[in-house]
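QA checklist item 7 of 12: single-chain prediction sanity check.
[x] sequence parsed
[x] length recorded as 401
[x] structure emitted
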Amino acid sequence: MFNKKWLQLARPNQIMPKGNWKIWMILAGRGFGKTRAAAEGVRELIHSEKYKRIALVANTIQEAKQVMVEGQSGLLSISEKEEKLTYIPTRRMLTWGNGAIATLYGAEHYEQLRGPQFDAVWVDEFAKFMYPRETFEQLSFSLRLGQNPKMILTTTPRPLKFIKDIMARPDTVTVRGSSLENLENLSPTFLEQLEYLKGTKLEAQEIYAEIVEDNPNTLWSWNDIENCYKAPPHFMDNIVIGVDPAVTSSEHSDETGIIVAGKDCNGKVYILEDASVNAPPDQWSDKVVQLYHKHHANKIVIETNAGGELLINLLQSKDPNLPIKPVRASKSKSERALPIVLLYQKKMVFHASQFRMLETQMATYEPGQKSPDRLDAMVWAVRELFSINDPPNLIPSVYVI
């Protein structure tokens, strides 16, 4: 059998299930081995001689190439010489000796899936897609070849209603798995990071593959975040970098939150980049200066409750021409964030991409808790772009429904 080696290596929940299913969802933590399991599943379908036209869909074409095809567990790495697998990057295509063809697609251009038809599809990191519902619907219409078309979905979990709907379908087989099942193949650095996440909701989601449901006490809901993805325009009227500096820079210190946000001519704000980092001041300040020039930013907004003039002097020592606005937190963190929550609900703030760490902080922060770094930096940047200053006791007119 072509995959005998894999059957000897794989854990039971990595082997493609038997039976008359249409969707095999591998819902597992980072490092579980989702990619290898799905790639071996694709090989098994191809070598059955029943599947000849396959779509490989990732968030972007580049991710499809880097992970699904060229990655350590990708199709090129796991295939054997006798399979006669050929990769043609310029055509986004793989061909096998038995005539099977796989084509790569990026979900950000899901409309490209309107014409083609397939008998099998592998979708990687589905919860990361900016347009998951639209991509899934197009793929479902495209699966119209063969007697038993199949879809393999690999993803770390997020509490998106659409993912739950797919799991509830009678033709879906869902496999759950934890990162800890694959300890022997994980790097020491990754294992150290697990210790840092211990006891957090991020650990439950990213490591144990639990779907962390909405907490009624949090300011943002996952639904607010799920509906905030939108590609930004090419031109921004105003770009701001929000910085929430960490007080210390040891291995287990908070990160320095660094968020880039821009405002377009229609008054809509886009989160463009999350460059938050756990690094000493000399390093994170270099990062801020690089981002300022990269995005042609208009201003750097930095919280100075801890560090004050020293932080400003540090940044200006890197570039004396930096336009820096120091801000001090006078209201509570939840009061400071509330106007931004309302802006999200009014669809005035969008995310240009998925920022998993930032979004997890948004969806799990409860008033009264220590405010997370990325969230604080985002709030400062968006407040600046909407000219929200402390202490306004009235909600600006833009929030009024």
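[x] summary fact logged: The two ends are 64 Å apart (CA to CA).
[ ] second reviewer sign-off
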